[in-house]
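Quick question, first post here. What does this chain look like in 3D?
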Amino acid sequence: MQSPCISLCTLNENDICVGCYRHIDEITGWHSADDRRRTEILNNCATRKSDLTKSKHTL
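> Answer (accepted):
Ran it through. Tokens below.
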């Protein structure tokens, strides 16, 4: 399974990457994660991206 990294590696105040929406712990654990965990991480990213996009539009 391919990493969601898009080489826009900058963390926000909550240690979430503004490029791929992974938490720092998910980034550092990606290479040792099995496919089940990677799928969970990708789902977390999708949720974070959606939540952050919604919150930007409500400001």
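The helical segments are 24-29, 35-57.
The longest helix spans residues 35-57.
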